[in-house]
Amino acid sequence: MAVIEGLVATSAYSGYTNQHVSAHLADYAGAPDITLPLSSSITVQLPAVSVVSNLPVTAAPKELSGMLARSYSDDYYHRIHISPGELVLGNIASTQVTTVHLWNAFLTPETVLDMDGLEEGLTVTPPAALPMTLGGLQETDWLVSVTPDGPSTLDTTVRWVFADAQAPALRITGNRIVPWGFAPNWSPPLRETLSWLTNILANNRGGEQRRSLRAAPRKGWQASFITEGAERALFDLSMAGWGRRVWALPVWVDVLQLDTALPAGSSAIACDTTGRDFRVGGLALLRGETAFDTEAVEILDMTAGGITLKRVTQSTWPAGTRLYPLRSARLTEMPRTTRRTDALLEAECSFELTEPADWPAALPATLYRGRPVFAQRPDESTDLSHSYERLTLLLDNTTGRAAVTDTAGKSFALQQHRWFLAGRAEHSAWRSLLYALQGRTKSIWLPTHAQDLVPVEPLSGSLLKVQRVGYARFGVGQLGRQDIHIELVDGSVLMRRITAAIENGPIEELVVDADFPGVIQPGQVARISYMALCRQASDDIELEHLNDQDGVARCAITLRGVRDDLEAA
């Protein structure tokens, strides 16, 4: 038989010392050795005692720190809500009306007494006359209207003044600009200027390190205006009242005409935006016959086939209405005016944009020695200039002979290139090229487009035999004269570098750095021109626009040669 060790469990009613147990229960003694049958009972006669009440029981107070737990109700109720909480209007060129929702989230009525923070050109229209009472949990709509009249910069806070609740606030920001509704006089060309800024570190050998200091050029417009009658009076008053403030200036050269009528309340305008200065977030102008008939609209989105408006149009516009992109601009100086008659005024105005004049940049895809080649022929309807520049150091003590040192030992060509642009495609390509060059920053290969070398025998291998021009004596290794641009009759182009030359009677034999593809007969060659790596000679470009319908314009720039052997990639 197994032996199991253990202990006797003490009963719950005896053998346990507890100071909180009454004295009568403590009198029980443990009797672990007594076994009572389940049917047995024990009756104990207790002595009678009097019951004493100790109520109320005193307790020692203790301070506890804590916080009130917030609930969903506390976050949304017992306050005044405004939606939206801020109006960022951007450029204010026409009246802008916005609905603001005011919700009384109190469970009891609240009374709006007045509005605070209103200024010129800013009104708030309540749903009922003030003072007005808002019922508990009632939401109302208020119309906030901002007009172009007033200070040029809008930054104010409008408050609703309540009798018993806090004053909720709505911040409103924007820039007021007035549309320039006067049409330009096209008899003198309309001039557009683009100005970059380039920092050039140059050494006496002709090497350069160039850095563009502007992300986008400064853009300006110069135009002539003729006003008569009521428009003359409007021009005079607008100069006196608005003057040097910001104007919403039409890009006159990017004008479109509506094909169909545009009813009031329209949210989109069908038009061809390709190659024009429309942009998302910008403005556009609808103009009728006079400067009084204008409406500025804000562009929410755009595609090649039209623009979507941020707000619907306010007026009805017939077919033929002119549509212009708008840019914010400021007069660089007050207009120079000439009074022709008592009702006729002529003014010369110059504007400068107050916003970035961005445009997509694109360099030519053809490369030669890692640099793009600009092979487009110039407009030769008028004479083109071509000159040379050398880096010389003059030492002259005024008494003896002057000493002149050619520090670079190279000649830098100055070559003019002129465009006559017609159509949106040519205009856009020209602008993309200029934006890619960034003034004097970037360099490109530029042919002279002259008949510099005339082949007299077939081109084969790496040998080019040309009519004698003195190349072997003066041209070998010279900057801007060692690279050639060969145009073939079939339109293909070959580019080579001349590495050696010898004179052989009336013929000069030139050796190029790569073989020609097969044998090319002299009759297959249209032109052989020298080619130089160039940059623009100036950061300032001027484009003359001749009309506003088909993008006809002209421009001339001068490019300066740079040392391709010292040019950083």
Description of the molecule:
It is built from five helices and 38 strands. It has a 23-stranded mixed β-sheet that branches. The chain has a five-stranded mixed β-sheet with strand order 2-9-8-4-6, with no helix packed on it. The longest helix is centred in the C-terminal third of the chain and has 14 residues. The radius of gyration is 44 Å and the shape is extended.
Overall mean confidence score, pLDDT: 89
Portion of residues in helices?
A: under 10%
What is the 3D shape?
A: extended
Radius of gyration, taken over Cα atoms and rounded to an integer in Å: 44 Å
Let me know the largest β-sheet: 23 strands, mixed
Question: What is the first-to-last residue Cα distance?
Answer: 104 Å
- Beta-strand level of the residues, as a percent range? 35-45%
Query: How many β strands by DSSP?
Result: 38
Total helical elements: 5
Give start-end ranges of low-pLDDT stretches.
31-42
Give me the secondary-structure category: mainly beta
Summarize the structure.
The chain has 569 residues and is mainly beta.
